[in-house]
Design a protein that fits this description.
This protein is of the alpha/beta class and 350 residues long. The chain is built from 13 helices and eleven strands. It folds into two domains: 2-165, Rossmann fold (3-Layer(aba) Sandwich); 172-349, Glycogen Phosphorylase B (Rossmann fold). A six-stranded parallel beta sheet has the order 8-7-6-9-10-11, with helices on both faces.
């Protein structure tokens, strides 16, 4: 059996799809599984392969530039996929329009793939549906699991919040890499991790808010170390904000791969950050998260997987027509009272 999984996105998109990857491998333990994904869209977007490497979930990867109109490149990809003679195509695409679904279906059919599952033909499969009478929507991970029922018996009690479905299977080498970084920085005892980056500016809680939170938390927890994780281009801003932390501190931005970062996160007492890839990585690592959201996506869809997380979501600001309004979303994410965020962090550390 030769399988092609189609999943676009970066670090966070990959983590929420892990339950599907685990289930597909469980269903086809001896299959050759390849993934078709996008090339990194920015320096902050880790490619899918950097997250799932060393996990035994995939055997190969095909990349193409996201939103490409390079027709010769798409033709070469088409030729390469035909040569692979895949038996099954599984779509784990993010919300797609119906015309795009038809385009993808025809493209992969002409690649010689006989069986295709996971195409989001139904409206409810292209977007997360509301849960009960409350404001929250289903997790993105649940939407994806619903779409791949065609691979065989997948039961309703498969819970993406169960850590078995987001297990990163960190290797001893990756854990050793984390220990080396921590030892070099002189890290001993309890520490927390924060990540201040975000791919979209409307999701940023703001320098002033982070500086206040760091000053207040370090004042009440003088022995606690703060470690900042992120991409290399976030290092300068992170270094500036570290000065507001009066206790021991370290800047690891740009110094760790995603999986070594996960090994560091697995030892942290708490993760602080935006709705971002590092937040999802922390949750998959089993670390409690305090996550700050804008109202750019339906409430609940991108909440961290797992239990005991604290999520701040500006429900009063949720308006679909203003999803992409940067100024509006900055106002939304900055609407949380500082005292509430400090209290939640203090409670999580207790």
């Amino acid at each position: 059996m030769r399988i092609l999984i189609h999943r676009l996105g970066s670090l966070g998109d990959t983590v929420v799809a892990l339950p599907c990857f685990h289930l597909i491998r469980q269903r086809y333990p001896s299959a050759h599984i390849a993934v078709l994904t996008n090339s990194p869209v920015s320096s902050k977007a880790a490619p899918l392969e950097a997250i799932v490497e060393n996990m035994g979930l995939i055997d190969a990867a095909f990349y193409y530039p996201m939103g490409s109109r390079d027709y010769p490149a798409l033709a070469r990809l088409h030729s390469d996929l035909r040569k692979e003679r895949f038996d099954l195509y599984i779509s784990l695409s993010i919300g797609r329009s119906l015309p795009t679904c038809f385009r993808d279906y025809l493209y992969f059919k002409t690649c010689g793939i006989r069986r295709i599952i996971g195409m989001p033909w139904a409206t409810r499969d292209r977007r997360c549906v509301k849960v009960g009478d409350g404001p929250n929507h289903e997790l993105e991970a649940r939407r994806l699991l619903r779409r791949i029922r065609g691979i065989g018996p997948i039961f309703d009690d498969v819970d993406p919040n169960n850590p078995q479905w987001t297990d990163l299977k960190l290797t001893e080498d990756e854990r050793a890499g984390a220990r080396r970084l921590l030892d070099q920085a002189g890290v001993a005892g309890k520490f927390i991790v924060a990540s201040l980056g975000t791919k979209w500016p409307g999701n940023d809680w703001g320098t002033e808010n982070w500086s206040q939170l760091f000053a207040k938390l370090s004042s009440s927890h003088p022995e606690l170390r703060l470690i900042l994780l992120g991409s290399a281009d976030e290092s300068e801003r992170s270094e500036t904000l570290l000065h507001f932390w009066s206790g021991p501190r370290s800047n690891f931005c740009g110094k760790a791969t995603p999986r070594v970062s996960a090994a560091i996160l697995s030892q942290a007492a708490l993760f602080l950050g935006h709705d971002s890839g590092p937040m999802h990585l922390a949750a998959a690592s089993g670390t409690r998260c305090l996550a700050l959201f804008s109202a750019r996506n339906p409430p609940g869809q991108w909440f961290p997987l797992g239990k005991n997380h604290t999520v701040f979501y500006p429900y009063a600001f949720y308006q679909k027509e203003l999803w992409d309004d940067v100024d509006y979303q900055r106002k939304a994410i900055c609407s949380f009272p500082m005292a509430d965020v400090v209290a939640a962090a203090t409670s999580a550390l207790a």
